[in-house]
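ENCODED BACKBONE
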Amino acid sequence: MPGGNDVIKQVHGALEYERRINLHRYPVKIGFVNGAVVLEGEVADVAAKKLALELAGAVDGVRGVIDRLHIAPAERKGDGAILDSVRGAFLRQPEFRNCTIRSRAKGRVETLRDAPGGGEIEFAVEDGIVTLEGSAASLSHKRIAGVLAWWAPGCRDVVNSLDVQPPEQDGDDEVVDALRLVLEMDPLVQAGQIRASCRNYVVTLEGYVRTDEERRQAEADAWCLFAVDRVLNRIEVRR
């Protein structure tokens, strides 16, 4: 079995080779403890975070990955401002109108909407990290809740611990269903021009859009989905 220094060197090499990970602008601290790689620091986006975790876990001799990576937000926001953004997103989104919504701040829980029978979601923000707890009515609701949290300006990470009640079998079709809903929700994307497919939690995007920004946004939406491991962006830009 490779030693700790060898594993760290291999992980560093894998991260440096991946074009979506910029170790020069966003240095990542790599450790190795009891067979697990520890990744710590800030990265550019959700894609860089997920790819770093995947690459580290694929190195020979690694039995687990401890995730301490966060996203460097475009604009730094305080926890209160992020909490307000998440609160507004949940209350506005029609998919959650039948769901009980609670926020938690400084040990105090506030019920924002009481709607028994459609799930119970409680969220909190600490150091820019949004935590989602409770239950969602479906896997799509769980995934949409995570995306709404990621969309909050200033968000550095999302811990999506929502249970699905009643339980559902997850799979590629569930990912595609949620992604279609998310793309339709996103005002920066024309969802009708984008086709999405998924195999083994790898999403492929096809179709055409009018701008490079719209192409990037559609890909970012897919990366934000819970359990998506990789995104292949084959969308064309037609001006």
